[in-house]
């Protein structure tokens, strides 16, 4: 780790960050928390709705999540976890971030469960959505360890036996990092994910990541592939647009090829993203991870979603069709 990275970690651990807010259902998330980070305590976390307190050698955080109906009413065997893209970028904070509220996150989780049938939760990445921590430490080992610990706590709380993981952009990179830490992931989907960070840096002619981190501080998912020892029947999918000018198609393909070379069951789906830089593919990713959790074949998933637009208006119909073909396990 570089000296600057250690300094940031030290600041977080000594409580120098402000205290994260315990957001009510309709309170909007704070830009300042996402920009500067925020801390928490075990007592505060215990008083926060749908949150888990996690600790490790380099962190102590309160991670908030937004569960669908089945998770709110009792134990579940399987659950899908969604991780959003980076709130911060070289241009500053996402202009849509502050519009978010806990109620909106829960409504979206409920929508996804109604569509696909599998309990679904949205996980607040460190420093966002009411989770303590620091978004400036994304793409470092810190974020992977914090989120991995949160998944352990959530698993214990609800009796979860297997996860489906789905993430967009930076969240997709986090999915790729997490599969090296866990053996309970049945399905993983990286939607336009930052999965080959150093490749992306080099291809852009940069000397550091877009987060400002040096390559020495980056926890690169592609470099963790040798540590992936998945559970039986594990499958991974990557949804990509060839015209993506945010996270290049070539960087996503580079990860896929590296995973295939060591025998991981990974499939890249070429789709049509939404947004001006052809980057948003998570709506398709949500259907893919659900169909995978339902046990539908890779051939079915590939033929159904390849070439599809991320704003396809028939997502509900596609979900109903998939549920009708659910494979018993």
TrEMBL record:
Domain called AB hydrolase-1: residue spans: 125-193
A Pfam family it matches: Abhydrolase_1
Coiled-coil stretches: none
Protein's UniProt keywords contain tRNA processing: no
Annotated signal peptide: 1-22
Record protein name field: AB hydrolase-1 domain-containing protein
Organism: Herbaspirillum robiniae
Gene3D superfamilies: alpha/beta hydrolase (3.40.50.1820)
Keyword set, alphabetical order: Signal
Chain segments carrying region Disordered: 96-136
SUPFAM superfamilies according to UniProt: alpha/beta-Hydrolases
